[in-house]
Design brief:
The structure holds two protein chains of two kinds. Chain A is 19% helix and 22% strand. Chain A is of the alpha+beta class. Chain A starts with a strand and ends in an 8-residue tail after the last strand. In chain B, the strands form seven sheets. A six-stranded mixed beta sheet of chain B has the order 5-4-16-15-14-6, with helices on one face. A six-stranded mixed β-barrel of chain B has the order 21-25-22-24-23-27. Chain B has a four-stranded parallel beta sheet with strand order 10-9-8-12. In chain B, helix 5 (143-153) packs parallel to helix 14 (315-328). Classes of the chains: A alpha+beta, B alpha/beta.
Amino acid sequence: MQLGFYIDQSRCINCHTCAVACKDWHNIPAGSVNWRWVVSVEQGKYPRVFVAFFALSCLHCAKPACIPACPVGAITKRQADGIVLVDRDACLGKEDCGLCREACPYKAPQFATDGEAKMQMCHLCADRWQEGRKPVCVEACPMRALDAGPLDKLEARYGMLKQVPGFVYAAESRPSVVFKARQPELLQ
Amino acid sequence: MGEARIITTSCSHDCGGRCLLRVHVHDGKIVRIETDDGEAPQLRACLRGRAYRQRIYSPDRLKYPLKRVGARGEGKFQRISWDEALDTVANELLRVRSMYGNASILLLAGSGSQAVLHGAGAVERLLAKFGGYTRTWGIPSFEGALFASMATYGTMMTGNAREDLLNARLIVMWGWNPAVTVWDTNTAYILARAKEKGTRIISIDPRLIESTAVFAAEWIPIRPGTDAAMLVAMAYVIMERRLEDRQFLEKYTVGFDKFRDYVLGVEDGIPKTPTWAEKITGIPRATIEKLAIEYATSKPAALIPGWGPARGSRGEQFTRAACTIIAMTGNIGIAGGYAGGFMRAFHSREMVMPRGARNPVEEGAPPRPYSLYKLRGAAKPTSARIHSVKVYDAILRGRAGGYPCDPKMAYIVASNFLCSYPNTNQGIKAFQKLEFIVVHEQRMTPTARFADILLPVNTFMEREDIISPWLGSPYYLFMNKAIDSLYESKSDRDICAELAPRLGIADYRDGRSNEEWLRIITQQTGDIPDFDSFKAKGYVKLKVDEPFVAFREQIEDPVAHPFPTLSGKIEIYCPHLAEMENPLIPPIAKYLPVPDGFSDPLSKKYPLQLVTVHHKPATHTTMERIPWLDEVEPRRVWINTRDAETRGISNGDRVLVFNDRGKMLMAANVTERIMPGVVSIGHGGWFELDANGVDHGGCTNILTPSEHSPGGAWCTNTVLVEVRKV
């Protein structure tokens, strides 16, 4: 089974509630580490402008590029649910390595700026799944623009759209995500 | 981390939302904050509520009572005991009262706490029992919209429930950004659902705001301060094509003929055509025509006049004009329509502490000139109050300047006043003139730095209270106490209760504990069956048969249910306004050119119109300097690519934004999302003046004028500036 995300770009209002809730739940200080972040797309010229937003995180790819990139095998993909996890004790850190972030098409692996700087990223709230709860970002979203669950179920419910403005589907890695796109009404 | 207790509460700052917070407490410390995951409608908190842990434990929190030891505003303080602090405040109150009288005690009460027991109300009760005080009128957010709502409908209860937007065929968001300002929890979510079911949504705003980007099928950028011209021209198109609802106008309104005479040019020889409005608004006449026809032929349609456009010079005219074309199309009292006006939608917000003693200073004072004193239901229109933007001038000039008192001391509660009110530089001068300043605060704000005595106040998570939705929706929230008060902080109410005996006030609490008061207030709502289960559950969500629609009764049975105006009808022409004979608040809605507007000769010197908008991570000034929020969206000045190019400004450059009132330095956001000629800055910044008087803290009120319209509207969206690369 592979867990994944549904991201509704047509609803995202760029409020960052998901990102703040993530930092609060996982106790991540403000700074360079963002397990979840919001992508903002702005195209066109005044007054015909297209603007869209969506929240992104590690997408727990079917074939994560970060895993072969890691020289010490610190990144693993869980068999039972496909969550990609990092063993921070084994990680060499950003100063000595950082190859996982370079390999990732979405720059999901995160490093703090301090000396330690071991890799960390979204683990799909593995702690909450254990208690039968969805990730904190999903339960936080005031727009109900996020969902998470078994990818096949998400695809059955929301469709197979894998690419939206601002997001290129990395066919080799196969990120575990489906989208709903923002339509470019304001350009018309 | 072991088992945490989960406490249910709600934010109580002046935010458009009112959401459920589930606070995880471990060993007396808040470790996490979640939100509503229970029964529908879920009241999900926004980023500001989710980041609240960092506000509670902010390094800026005031720990102990402080006494000023440096110059005022310098920020040098010394820790003192509560006894010394309270004795000093009491002695100053007694001294000022005996030397100058109660009217010279100025209460500067902000909206920082909106729950029923704590915040400004606690001090109002104390000072009323002390023999009175001078207070302000002119609410920053909405005074213009409120005035227009009262003049037209005689009430502020003019909104439909948000769920009713799902019944509209067309939604026009006019200067309205609920994706940022929330405007009652779940508003943005309901707009998304309305769009998904096929409702056409149009947005009129100088900026391409989040609400436009996500919900709107069409964006109509408009020059700030010209909204009334657009609406009047829409009325022209509707009249010309005979699309107005004659039957509705006949049955429910008065004075349409006078408005028609103005629009058609019978009154002044100028027909208010789309061509006329194009020159003023910057909107092509074809767009104005198309919108007018679409609005008039898409019943039911919800035209939502936001408070922002009314927060400008002559802002009353925007809301009045909007209400007028809403009435012309008969979109009132019906599902899917929207009456505009003040837009409160349910009686839950009427839940307040029973009034204590009246303010003796206001007893017997005549009504304020240009107030709608014959109407009931808004704030008391007494001439004993000072308009909030004139506080600084009143301090500087007093009775000699025509004000009702000579202010000698300021009692500041739930307000970062110097940052929140216009013309901060004037305020800094004025505050030096006061004999005494006492401030209740939670953190070391720029206003707190001006205190002579600074009293540390706890946050809402450190006390118990109840609260209702901001504009009214059918629910109530119980604010359970999550943790004990940090450091030596106390609640506003406890501070006042301890001051009371020092002032000779025997029974500040009127013989009742906080919980007894909460029980009484709960019972008075008539909606909450049982206090104890309300407290245990943390909320009461009322089941309503159908979404609330304002004026349904007035429309269905006008004989039994007249409108609460003097005529009993919707006053397109308001005789109460006519009596005032003030051309700046005419009896019908008009477009009025304004000082500091785009057509002011001053625009040669300062060619950019500044709008001061709500800043996503902020709740006015309350959520400043919270790391999780600061990083979301740093405050920047939005400027159109063309305006930036002519000034040699690139995205991210440091620029100076300035006019005759002040200067500030900030980064530029060069974007296509704002119309040329307009710049915007999110308000709420805490000023940080350097040696040259340049602000580095992003406080927009460094630039705003301390002016207001006769109806009370603030002018913080009527500001001319220039921007220069540094």
